[in-house]
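SUBJECT: protein chain
CONTENTS: sequence, C-alpha cells:
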Amino acid sequence: MSFKTSFWAGLTAYLVGKIVYTIIFVILLIAAIAIAAASLDLSGDKEKISISEPVFLKLNLQGNIEERKNDNPLAAMIAGEKAATPSLEAIKEGLDYAKKDPLVKGVLLDFSGLATGIATIEEFRNELLTFKKSGKKVYSYSNGYSQIDYYLASCSDSIWLNPQGAIEFKGLSMKFLFFKNLLAKLGIQPQIFRQGKYKSAIEPFELDSMSAASEEQSSALIHSVWNDILVKISTNRKSNVAALNGIADSLVLVNAEQAMQNHLIDAVYYRDQVEAQIVKFSSKNQPLVDFAAYVKSKTPIEIEPSETKKTSIAVLYAEGEIVDGKGAKDQIGDVTFIAELKKIREDSNIKALVLRINSPGGSALASENILREVELIKKIKPVVVSMGNVAASGGYYIACKSDVIVAQPNTITGSIGVFGMMFNMRELFQEKIGVSFDGINTNKHSDFPAFTREISAKEKEIIQKEIVAVYTIFKQRVAAGRHFSVEMADSLGRGRVWSGIDAKRIGLVDELGGLDDAIAIAAKKAKLKDYEIASYPHQEFKLADVIKDFSSLEIQKTISESAELKNHYSAIMNLLRQMQSMKGIQTRLPGQIIIE
C-alpha cells in the first residue's frame, strides 16, 4: 500500500471513528436525559406517599445545601446512589408541611458530612428551632460529626453517635491561597491598583502571606463567627462557652466516650438501634419516611412568575460573582439581572421585592447598573435585602440602598473597597516560551491595556485616579443608602469585611435573620396580609446545562471523595475563573476565603 493510500485510509478511519463516537455520545446523552426525565416524572405527576400512622421524616445531610431547588433533570442521576441533600428552599417547605401534619411526629437528621456555608446552616438551624416549638421532635445521628454537622445537630432534642464514631470540634480556621511565587516562576508580573487599606482581594497575586491589615480583619471576622456558634451551642446543650473552648483547644477528634463525658451527645447507637428508638415514637410498619420524597409529594407544581395573578412578594435570587453582560448560570450578569428587576418593577401584582444575595461582588460598573434598577423599584414598592453566606463588596453595593438589610449573624459582608489588576506576561512569552512581540502604534498609548509590557507611570496615574473615583462613588452610595456621612462610610469601608453581627452593630445591616424574616418585613412595609411568593429568575430547563452536568460527572465524583480536595479544588478553580472575568474596576471580596 502506498503512503498516499495509507494516509487517506487512515484519515477515513479517523473520520468514521469520530462520526461513530459522536453518534454514540448523542444516543447515550438522549438516553440519559430520557432516564432522568422518567425518574423525575417531568409530566408533573408526583409520587404519592401514603401515611396512615405516626412517622418520623428522615433527612439525609451530605455535601452542599443549595439555596433553590435544582431544576436540571440530570441532577438526581449525577448524585447517584447518594441522593443530593435537598435545597434550603425544599427543607423549609418540608418542615412547614410537617409542622402542620399530625402524623409527622418529628425529623431524624442523618449526617454524612455537610460542606456548605455557615449562614446556610444558621438559617436551617433556625427553621429546626421553629419546628420544635410546634411540639415536634428533632433527633440527630451520625457515624461521625464534622464541626459544621455538630453545630446544626446541637439544636436537636437528642444527639446520637455511633459507638465507634467521633466529633470534630477544633475551632474555625480561615485559609487564603497565594500565587506570588507561582506567577514569578511563570514570568507573570501583576500590576495592581486598589483603594482601601483592607482591600486584600489582590494580595494572593502580590504577596505570599497575609498582610497585617488582612490578618486584623480576618481575625475579627472569624472570632465573631466562632463566638456566635459557641454561644448557641452552649445555650442548646446547657453548657458554657469556656468549657467548649477548652474542648476545642485540647482535642481535634472527640471520640464517643469523651463526647458523652463532655455532654456533647446524649447516647451512642449503631444504626439499627436508631430505628429501634424511632419506633418508640412512630409506627412499627413505617417508622421512617424519606424527607425529600415527602416534600415532593406535598409541593405544588411551580408556576412561572408571569403566570401569577395574585398579590405577590417577589424573591429575586442574586447568586455568584457580578459580571458585565449576560453572565453564566452561576453569575450575576447585569444585563440579565436588570431584565429580571424590570419585570418585577413593571408587574403591578408584585407589591414588594426581597433581594436574596449570595455574592462576593465583581464588576464595579455592573454593580452600579444593578443598583440603579434597584433604586427605580424602590420608588414604587418596598425593597428588602436578605443576605446569605456572603454579600460583600459588589454584593453590598447592590444592597446598600434598599429599605431594610437583613443578614445572618455569620454572614460575610461589607468589603467596601475597589481594586484593579492587569498582568504583564512579556517574560512568560519571551523568556519562558520563546514568543516575542512587535508592532506599530499611532499614538503613545494605542496598545493600552497590553499584557505584553509593563504599564507606564502615566498609565498607572490614570488608573489609580479612576480607582479613587469609583471608591468615592461607592462610599457616596453607601452613605446615602445607610443615612450617614461619607466620612463614616469610609471609616467602615476601606475594603474591610464584617460578620453580620458586627455589621449590625456598626450600621451596615438593620436586622439579623433569614429569608423568611426579610419576607415578613417586606409584607409589613407593603401592608400585605394575604400574598403569594413569586421566585425569580424562573428556572428553565436548558440542554446546555444538561450537557455541562453530564460531561462533568466523573470530575464531580472524583472531587467528592475528599472534602479537603473539594474545598481546595473549588477555591483554585473559582479564583482562576474570577481572574478571567476581572474586566475593568472591581468591587470584589478579598481573595478566596476558606473557613473550616
About this structure: The chain has a mean pLDDT of 84. The two ends are 65 Å apart (CA to CA).
